[in-house]
UniProtKB/TrEMBL annotation:
One of its GO terms (cellular component) is endoplasmic reticulum lumen. This is Hypoxia up-regulated protein 1. Residues 611-630, 641-663 have a biased composition (Basic and acidic residues). The keyword Endoplasmic reticulum applies. Residues 1-34 form the signal peptide. It is found in: Endoplasmic reticulum lumen. The keyword Signal applies. It comes from Saimiri boliviensis boliviensis. PROSITE patterns: HSP70_2, HSP70_3. Residues 574-583 have a biased composition (Polar residues). One of its GO terms (molecular function) is ATP-dependent protein folding chaperone. It comes from the Eukaryota.
Length: 678
């Protein structure tokens, strides 16, 4: 009896131990559920989090502020961030870095590098011969790339989020300007990896703003399309976006709200910073005039004095937005001399007259890319801190021809809230109401290749071909496949940007190289020698433009097929049962897929939103002769093949059915796939 009781107690101890382990695992899991977003602006950043019990909240920094300056002060043994670094800018301007995002992904000869050097001459930029970019030279032993500096800022934002959430955070959604190209987006991803962040998505800041607007007005969205224009003028740039809201029918959740980016226009250098630099130059001129008879040095040659003037210009711009005039004053500006001068709003507007003339530019670009008119726009909503300047609102209101401008959105925090909502959606740890987001490609991408053609017997010439992969304002994320049919040897093809005629001459110089990469394929000839008895189905290159707008070449493969007669063996009862169970749980395959080793179109599918002629996730196979018709990825492939453009397995299905009806003999299409390096 005693032995039985002891055994029962041991079993209870084991049970309690298992319960304790499970509880510990659950607690550990709950500690990693939080996700964050970083709205990375030129001048400041906003961090937001979502965790169990805390839905979408802006993180307060150590000074209990909701907005943190994007400034880093680097010394030999210590670093300062945010407001601490901003205060150090006066004492050590050379080691205090700001607006460094303008240098991300830029080569040393880019006009923006020269512009940055002109705006902030206190920083020493050195050339990196390996990457053809620039470094910040803090001291002879200390230098950092812009990506490394951004990585420090992202790591600091992570520490703020973790302190606020009281748990570790590794998953994040980061906002980037919509005009960032592939090099700039990859630079942000590299910085995030340095910070130890797992980037769920790089979301365009205009898309994040539109998502925030839609999420909080879900009940106002119906089947009738509503066209809203967001005009976002921040510190470094201006972006105008046209968004269409309406409810659409989805496969998973029925009728759900959707936002679609219809048009985008931007100005990379129009923003509050340029206004502040104009004010700084004006104040420097006033100070030099006051000291004209004292034979003093030019204040522009003193980095500390210019840092003080820039800070005062920032304050002055804000005050003049609400007042007709204001007194600028700085104690001990240079050589213990105080500075005091009155500046009026009229003077400020005269200084920035050419900037205000550029305000309507992004509006016209957005309308042109959306192929819409102002009459179709229901409302124009202001976003960004620089839109608070009265003259900006006056010029914009005249340009759009509306009665008033919408100010019913938090101009500073909208992008951060939209990004953190998307982070909650992507984390899979939270149950979030669906909101379909259809972003748009700003820069088209195409494939270029050259092949030899025989125009006449014995006369050969080279033909240059271009095939558009991702068209301008087409939706993404999206996967595409291009098939090369007339190559039986190793060859090269180029991935380039498409027509960038919508950019001005200066924007094209800032954009940089239009060649993304050159792919050199090896092993093509060997694959044809190996499968001489098979029919070639071409060389297929699989491209992916992911949620972050980053292009990747997933794989390149050579596909061969042959038709053989085969007598299928009788399946055993267990095999039939296993196939039935597999199909019930979505793991079954069609007879063609079992025999065909080639990756099929269905494996590339993503859930596309409805209502567009070019759905995200569609598989459009391009041929050298012509483009294949666009097919709906949600529909099963047709049984009738269309020349060489038919997906693998379609011809086999037709021939198999035809042979069975005539000779009652099963014919199986077998494929072989050879993947090779590039």
């Amino acid at each position: 009896m005693a032995a039985t009781v002891r055994r029962q107690r041991q079993k209870r101890r084991v049970c309690w131990a298992l319960v304790a382990v499970l509880l510990a695992d659950l607690l550990a899991l709950s500690d990693t559920l939080a996700v964050m977003s970083v709205d990375l602006g030129s001048e400041s950043m906003k961090v937001a989090i979502v965790k169990p019990g805390v839905p979408m909240e802006i993180v307060l920094n150590k000074e209990s502020r909701r907005k943190t300056p994007v400034i880093v002060t680097l010394k030999e043994n210590e670093r300062f961030f945010g407001d601490s670094a901003a205060s150090m800018a006066i004492k050590n301007p050379k080691a205090t870095l700001r607006y460094f995002q303008h240098l991300l992904g830029k080569q040393a000869d880019n006009p923006h590098v020269a512009l940055y050097q002109a705006r902030f001459p206190e920083h020493e930029l050195t050339f990196d011969p390996q990457r053809q970019t620039v470094h910040f030279q803090i001291s002879p032993q200390l230098q950092f790339s812009p990506e490394e500096v951004l990585g420090m800022v992202l790591n600091y934002s992570r520490s703020l989020a973790e302190d606020f959430a009281e748990q570790p955070i590794k998953d994040a959604v980061i906002t980037v300007p919509v005009f960032f190209n592939q090099a700039e987006r990859r630079a942000v991803l590299q910085a995030a990896r340095m910070a130890g962040l797992k980037v769920l998505q790089l979301i365009n800041d205009n898309t994040a703003t539109a998502l925030s607007y839609g999420v909080f007005r879900r009940k106002d969205i119906n089947t009738t399309a509503q066209n809203i224009m967001f005009y976002d003028m921040g510190s470094g740039s201006t972006v105008c976006t046209i968004v269409t809201y309406q409810t659409v029918k989805t496969k998973e959740a029925g009728m759900q709200p959707q936002l679609q980016i219809r048009g985008v226009g931007f100005d990379r250098t129009l923003g509050g910073l340029e206004m502040e630099l104009r004010l700084r130059e004006h104040l420097a001129g006033l100070f030099n005039e006051q000291r004209k008879g004292q034979r003093g040095k030019d204040v522009r040659e003193n980095p500390r004095a210019m840092a003080k003037l820039l800070r005062e210009a920032n304050r002055l711009k804000t005050v003049l937005s609400a007042n007709a005039d204001h007194m600028a004053q700085i104690e001990g500006l240079m050589d213990d001399v105080d500075f005091k001068a009155k500046v009026t709003r009229v003077e400020f507007e005269e200084l920035c007259a050419d900037l205000f003339e550029r305000v309507p530019g992004p509006v016209q670009q957005a309308l042109q890319s959306a192929e819409m008119s102002l009459d179709e726009i229901e409302q124009v909503i202001l976003v960004g801190g620089a839109t608070r300047v009265p003259k900006v609102q006056e010029v914009l209101l005249k340009a759009v021809g509306k009665d008033e401008l919408g100010k019913n959105i938090n101009a500073d925090e909208a992008a951060a809230m939209g990004a953190v909502y998307q982070a909650a959606v992507l984390s899979k740890a939270f149950k979030v109401k669906p909101f379909v987001v259809r972003d748009a490609v700003v820069y088209p991408i195409l494939v270029e290749f050259t092949r030899e053609v025989e125009e006449e017997p014995g006369v050969h010439s080279l033909k240059h071909n271009k095939r558009i992969l991702f068209s301008r304002m087409g939706p993404y994320p999206q996967r595409k496949v291009i098939t090369f049919n007339r190559y039986s040897h190793d060859f090269n093809f180029h991935i380039n940007y498409g027509d960038l005629g919508f950019l001005g001459p200066e924007d094209l110089r800032v954009f940089g190289s239009q060649n993304l990469t050159t792919v050199k394929l090896k092993g093509v000839g060997d694959s044809f020698k190996k499968y001489t008895d098979y029919e070639s189905k071409g060389i297929k290159a699989h491209f992916n433009l992911d949620e972050s707008g980053v292009l990747s070449l997933d794989r390149v493969e050579s596909v061969f097929e042959t038709l053989v007669e085969d007598s299928p063996e009788e399946e055993s009862t267990l095999t039939k049962l296993g196939n039935t169970i597999s199909s019930l749980f979505g793991g079954g395959t069609t007879p063609d897929a079992k025999e065909n080793g080639t990756d099929t179109v269905q494996e590339e599918e993503e859930s596309p939103a409805e209502g567009s002629k070019d759905e995200p996730g569609e598989q459009v196979e391009f041929k050298e002769e012509a483009e294949a018709p666009v097919k709906d990825a949600s529909q099963p492939p047709p049984a009738e093949p269309k020349g060489d453009a038919a997906p693998e397995g379609e011809k086999a299905t037709e021939k198999e059915n035809g042979d069975k009806s005539e000779a009652q003999k099963p014919v199986v299409c077998r494929s072989s796939v050879t993947r090779f390096g590039f």
